[in-house]
Specification:
alpha/beta; Rossmann fold; 364 residues; five-stranded parallel β-sheet
């Protein structure tokens, strides 16, 4: 009886694989970062935009690139969240790939390659931890932190993000810091870790789990809030929770800069604006808010630390006001969400043509 059930399940798994009705997971639980991309995993993004491809053998959404750097070449390592992971567009239409192309056009006699270390859900703490454990292996000459105003401050705060997310936090006390990895003690993390050998080998198990999760989400009470809580980042007067998120973010950026400099690399900061700052300034959700507050804060941190900073807000806003074209969103959701192909291209083109950025690359 048991053997026949097992054989039936195996046959079902083979059928699902062969017909393309399911796929193995492209993300897995991780005790350091909370989540990692699975090396060589196949992904298909349909919820927002579209892309299909394979995670590279070192767990990055990028083309294959070894740890060892070729002689006489330079590398730009890009840290970021889902805006850099860019699952919403084809990999060759993403900011990291386009930046490499445009740099090649601006500096044809320089061999400069980009490395995309972006992953959805990453905050500055995870980006720091990934850099000091994994990023340094690539021997980057320049590390570019792509900071998304829309949720990166929140992602650095346990109080704002909540307890149910697989995410480490870094807490500061005077001149010391420690890593809060309490997510590893949660029941859901332990269960997913325990079942990972099954999920990593069975499409049937993975698709069943996906559908159960989708059903649970569908049964949840809908969010009736008129405005997303992330707009709190623009409040003129910050409560203690948001003030702490700002303070922790400033310390994390400084700490990442120090780590990069200790490894004899250059560091720079690129601000990715929220769509409210670009094409939705008149929304009631940000009425009376200071839409440049987070940008001004990051600029102060950068200037205090001697970090080159590049703010894409004016570029994207002026393009929208001039053309009326949306650089965020897809289909019926234009104007919100992640960058579409136009957003990635405009941002990469702007960076590669920025005189200060080009000068920084020449010095590498």
């Amino acid at each position: 009886m048991i053997s026949s059930v097992f054989v039936t399940l195996v046959i079902m798994d083979v059928i699902i694989r062969s017909t393309g009705m399911g796929r193995l997971p492209e993300r897995r639980p991780d005790p350091l970062l909370g989540v990692r991309l699975v090396p060589n995993a196949v992904y298909t993004q349909k919820n927002e935009g579209f892309s299909h491809g394979r995670i590279n053998s070192l767990g990055l959404r990028d083309h294959e690139i070894p740890y060892e750097k070729p002689e006489n070449s330079k590398r730009v390592l890009i840290l970021g969240d889902s805006f850099m992971e860019a699952m919403q567009v084809d990999i060759d239409s993403s900011f990291p790939r386009l930046l490499q192309t445009f740099i090649g056009e601006a500096l044809p006699w320089h061999d400069i390659k980009t490395i995309n270390a972006g992953r959805g859900g990453m905050g500055t703490a995870e980006e720091y931890l990934w850099y000091v454990t994994e990023g340094i292996k690539y021997s980057p000459d320049l590390v570019l932190l792509a900071f998304y105003v829309g949720n990166d401050f929140r992602d650095n705060s346990k109080a704002l993000t909540g307890q149910g997310v697989f995410k480490p936090y870094i807490t500061f006390d005077a001149d010391t810091f420690w890593i809060d990895a309490s997510f590893t003690e949660s029941r859901s993390y332990k269960l997913k870790t325990l079942l990972w050998p099954l999920f990593s080998n069975s499409v049937l198990a993975t698709e069943t789990a996906r559908r159960v999760e989708a059903f649970k989400i569908g049964m949840e009470e809908p969010d009736t809030a008129t405005c997303p809580k992330d707009v709190g980042v623009f409040n003129v007067e910050q409560d203690s929770v948001w003030a702490n998120a700002y303070a922790v973010t400033g310390k994390l950026v400084a700490m990442l800069n120090d780590a990069v400099k200790r490894n004899s690399s250059e560091f720079c900061l690129m601000i990715i604006p929220d769509s409210y700052q670009v094409n939705d300034m008149e929304s009631d959700c940000v009425n009376g808010a200071d839409l440049r507050k987070p940008n001004d804060f990051l600029r102060e941190i950068a200037e205090a630390q001697g970090i080159p900073i590049f703010d894409l807000t004016d570029t994207l806003e002026q393009d929208y006001l001039r053309t009326g074209n949306y650089t965020y969103g897809f289909g019926e959701n234009l104007g919100t969400g992640h960058w579409n192909e136009s957003g990635h291209r405009l941002a990469a083109k702007n960076m590669a043509s920025n005189a200060i950025f080009v000068k920084l690359l020449r010095w590498l």
